[in-house]
Design brief:
Alpha-D-Glucose-1,6-Bisphosphate, Chain A, domain 3, about 25% strand, TATA-Binding Protein, five-stranded antiparallel beta sheet, globular, alpha+beta, 2 domains, four-stranded mixed beta sheet, about 280 residues, single chain
Length: about 280
């Protein structure tokens, strides 16, 4: 309400200890859209890559975040790493690539590192960069949404969502473990009509990633599901992504609608297959 009253161009909000940042932008109909962590991560990542130099640059995000940052890294010719959830792993990502430095790191849960001055997520410095980007976009007659459009027109739509199941009672931990164990031993062969092409059990560790209690299900180049139990509450979590090839601006709206429809179907199948019973 205050943003509408003041006709604000953007809303920036930090949590109490200011290590996370939420961003909302106005829409033409007068409503507001809260950008996801993956949206903001893509916008910040593109900006920092475009305004930096050096072969030692590295960008990183977590296994449960969008893969769009990987596309931006390929486009810029810089190193990219996926880490476990938790910003301590992002902060250490450059250590896995000798001679590299962390240019940018983010997690979908609204944490961003836009400078190496702080070896952790920092909502204050991220807010400054987002505000600068919004001001620059407005001066050019555009918005942050226009920047996101440009990215996905070039690299394809990356629609993301979460699904979670809260379990109660003394048996919650064992029930969560049983669901994840079932996905390991008897994974689905398809989701939303898409064939499962790979199942990666991260409990065994893979490449530079330490072992963790999670399963990654790949559906070709079209979609990915990461299933894991929460480390802080009795909740089973699935992180979903649906990707499409680049289509340019003309088909962007239609491609987003298609991706979101497929994302909803994947979510429904994941929910059905995660029943503890």
């Amino acid at each position: 309400a205050l943003a509408r009253e003041r006709r604000a161009d953007i809303v920036l909000a930090n949590d109490p200890d200011a290590d996370r940042l939420a961003v909302a932008v106005p829409l033409p109909d007068g409503s507001w859209r809260v950008l996801s962590g993956n949206d903001v991560g893509a916008i910040l990542g593109e900006h920092l890559l475009a305004h930096s130099h050096g072969s030692d640059r590295l960008v990183a995000t977590t296994i449960v975040s969008s893969t769009l940052l990987a596309g931006l890294a390929r486009e810029a010719g810089v190193a990219y790493r996926e880490t476990l959830t938790g910003f301590k792993w992002i902060a250490r990502a450059a250590a896995t690539v000798p001679g590299s430095r962390l240019l940018f790191g983010y997690e979908e849960a609204l944490g961003y590192a836009v400078t190496d001055a702080v070896a952790d997520k920092d909502g204050m410095t991220a807010a400054l960069v987002v505000a600068e980007l919004a001001a620059r976009a407005k001066a050019e007659g555009g918005s942050l949404l226009d920047r996101l459009d440009a990215i996905e027109a070039r690299l394809g739509v990356h629609a993301t969502a979460q699904w979670s199941l809260r379990l109660e009672g003394n048996g919650a931990a064992s029930a969560m473990a049983a669901v994840v164990r079932r996905w390991r031993s008897d994974p689905p062969t398809s989701l939303a009509g898409l064939a499962v092409t790979a199942v990666v059990d991260l409990a065994r560790g893979t490449g530079p990633l330490p072992a963790t209690d999670a399963v990654v299900v790949e559906l070709g180049t079209t979609a990915r599901v990461v299933l894991r139990p929460s480390g802080t509450e009795p909740k089973l979590k699935a992180y979903l992504e649906v990707r499409s090839p680049p289509t340019g601006y003309a088909a962007l709206a239609a491609e987003r609608a298609r991706a979101n429809e497929l994302l909803a179907a994947v979510r429904a199948d994941v929910a059905a297959l995660c029943s503890p019973s």
